[in-house]
Amino acid sequence: MRIRFLLPMLALVAGLGTAVATPAAADPGPLTAGDVSAADACYSWGRTLSEGASGEDVRQLQIRVAGYPGYGGVLAIDGQFGAGTKAAVTRFQQAYGLGADGIAGSATFSKIYALQDNDCSPVNFTFAELNRCNSDWSGGNVSAATAKANALVSMWKLQAMRHAMGDRPITVNGGFRSVSCNNAVGGATNSRHLYGDAVDLGAGSQGFCGLAKQARNHGFSEILGPGYPGHSDHTHVAHRSSRFWSASACGI
C-alpha cells in the first residue's frame, strides 16, 4: 500500500525546474505538477529520465528495471542512463503494455509505484523472505546495508521473472546468510548468500528447470539447478562478477 501526499508548492517548482523536457509519444514527459504531487512513500521521481541523464534518480530507476537486461545481460546500477538502461526500460515498458520508447516518464513511474511497497521492495516479495538468518542483515561478507541493498536488487529481478512467467507466485526458500548461518547449513565459504545477492527458489508451479531457464533473461549471472551438485532440490540465482550457469539436467 502506497501513501500519497501533496508536496508543498515550492518543492513542486524546484522539482519541475530540473525536468528534462523530452516528450515521448506514449509515455508523456516531462512530468507535470500533478504527477509529482502524487508522490510515493518509497521513492518519487521528479523528472523524466532518458539516455544521457545521471544521478540518484537514475540509480533508483535502474534498481527497478534490473530484471530487464535481456538474455544473459546484467544491468549496471551506476546512476548513468546509457544504452543498457534505455534497453532495460524499453523491455519493462513492453512487459507492461506501455509505450516502449526507453524514456522513463509519468506512465513508467506510475507502473513502478504500483509495483512497490513502502519499503521499496516489490509487491510480491519481502525482505523477510530474503533473510531468514537474522533481523539486521549483519555478519556476512559485506556490511548489513550492502547485503540488504543487494537483496533489494534481487527482489526486483525476481519480480520481473515472476511477471514473465505469467505472474505465478515464486517460492523463496532463503537468501542472505551470515557466516554463522552459512556454516550451519554447510554452505560454501565463498557463497553468494554471504553477500545478500543469492536466492534459493522452490519448484512451485514452474518447476526447478523452468525457473533456471527463465532466470537467464533477468540479470542473474549465477544460476545453479538440477544437475549441479547439491542443487537437485532447489534453483539458486545470484549475482557475481562473471557468468556461471550450471543446471545440466535442465540443459543449462
Automatic annotation (TrEMBL):
Keywords: Carboxypeptidase, Hydrolase, Protease, Signal. Residues 54-111 form the Peptidoglycan binding-like domain. The keyword Metal-binding does not apply. Residues 1-26 form the signal peptide. InterPro entries: Peptidase_M15A_C, Peptidoglycan-bd-like, PGBD-like_sf, PGBDSf, Zn_M74/Hedgehog-like. Gene3D superfamilies: 3.30.1380.10, PGBD-like superfamily/PGBD. The keyword Signal applies. GO terms for molecular function: carboxypeptidase activity. It comes from the Bacteria. Residues 124-238 form the Peptidase M15A C-terminal domain. This is Muramoylpentapeptide carboxypeptidase. It comes from Amycolatopsis oliviviridis.
